[in-house]
Design brief:
Layout (H helix, E strand, L loop, with lengths): L4 H21 L11 H18 L3 H5 L1 H30 L9 H20 L3
Helix pairs in contact: 1-2, 1-5, 2-4, 4-5
Length: 125
Amino acid sequence: MKLTGKQILMALLIIFTAVLHLAAAFDKVLYPTHADPLFILNGLGFLGLLGAYFLPIKFFQDRHKLTWWALFIYTILTIAAWIFIWVIQYVIIRGEPFFAHDSIYGVPAKIAEVTLLFLLWAEKP
C-alpha cells in the first residue's frame, strides 16, 4: 500500500495525539501516585486504530469503511470528552485557568485531532 502525503500526515497526527495522551497519563504533576488508565487507554486506542487503518491486515482492509468510521467517531468522542471533562468541569465549574498544566497536552492534542477529522473527511471511503 503506497501512502499519499495526506495519509502520512494523518498517521503522524494519530501518533502525535497518542503520544500526548500517553505522556499525560504518566505525568507526575497531574497524577503523582499512579498513571491515569483512561489516558493510557485513549493513547493505545489511537495506536490500535492507526494500525487497523493503515496496516495491510486483510481483516481490516476488507472492512476499511468501518475502520474509517471507528477512527472518525473515536476522534470525535475524544474531543467531546476533553470538552466535557476539562473545559466544562474544570475551567467553567471549578474556575481553573484554561492554560493550566493540563493544557500542555490537551490543546495540542485537540488541534491535531480536529486536523485529523478534516483529513479523514477528505478521504472518506
